[in-house]
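#structure-requests
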Amino acid sequence: MEPIPLPSHIHYELLLQLLERQTMFSVNPKSAMQEQVHQLIITLRKALAQQKQFEESCRRYNLPIEYRWSLNSEQPTPTVSQDIVSLQSET
């Protein structure tokens, strides 16, 4: 089985640091915008926690994980038409 592609944790960390260190200080304190930034931070922290739970599930089932840094990969992703041809040939 091929590894399951997941975003690298550094992507979350970069976004969180940007929001916490720069964006939060660029908006007016105690404003609706600051609350929106705060909600973005909470959402990203939840997303990272959920990804870690998913990773743990993969480990329990011995499913390989591959952390990705970008959408570019060494192997080309199959196109929809190739998938359809594969499915048709299996039936």
